[in-house]
From TrEMBL:
Alphabetized InterPro entries for the sequence: CENP-V-like (IPR052355), CENP-V/GFA (IPR006913), Mss4-like_sf (IPR011057)
Pfam families: GFA (PF04828)
Organism of this sequence: Endocarpon pusillum
One term of GO molecular function: metal ion binding
Residue ranges of every copy of the CENP-V/GFA domain listed in the record: 3-127
UniProtKB keywords: Metal-binding, Zinc
PANTHER family recorded: CENP-V_GFA DOMAIN-CONTAINING PROTEIN (PTHR28620:SF1), CENTROMERE PROTEIN V (PTHR28620)
The protein's name in its UniProt record: CENP-V/GFA domain-containing protein
Length: 131
């Protein structure tokens, strides 16, 4: 299925192809235990790779702010205007192997959207998103 999403102010917009786990049928999501993801309390949605992510706005990821990891091999992309962390990509060494990573911050998926229910409640979001 294709999921649409973006940051809060609309500078970053994307769509991505998500392939559920073939056994469980669930989306491949996890709570990362790295210090950055813990600070954000982000839930990462795994994509198969960058080919399944299409940046609709801005024109290229060079126009998106990023925060490189200490290893410099993984970048975390966020909106410089509204501050929302949108995705993370790169590779890193783990237990002697190179692991490739491409994850989207699941909370940036547009709501409502067919096939994806994230709120778990029927509460309407606060208009404009800021209190
Ligand atoms: Zn923004």
């Amino acid at each position: 299925m294709t999921i649409r999403g973006g940051c809060h102010c609309g500078h970053i917009k994307y769509e991505c192809i998500v392939k559920p786990d073939p056994e469980s049928g669930d989306l491949k999501v996890f709570r990362c235990n790295c210090t950055y993801c813990q600070k954000l309390s982000t839930t990462n949605l795994h994509l198969d790779g960058p080919e399944d992510f299409k940046l609709l706005s801005p024109a290229s990821k060079e126009e998106v702010a990023d925060y490189p990891s200490k290893m410099k091999s993984v970048n975390r992309y966020f909106c410089a205007t509204c501050g929302v962390h949108v995705w993370m990509q790169g590779s890193f060494e783990f237990q002697g192997k190179t692991a490739h990573l491409f994850v989207v911050n699941l909370s940036t998926a547009e709501q409502p959207q067919e096939g994806l229910e994230l709120t778990g409640s029927k509460d309407e979001p606060w208009p404009g998103g800021l209190v």
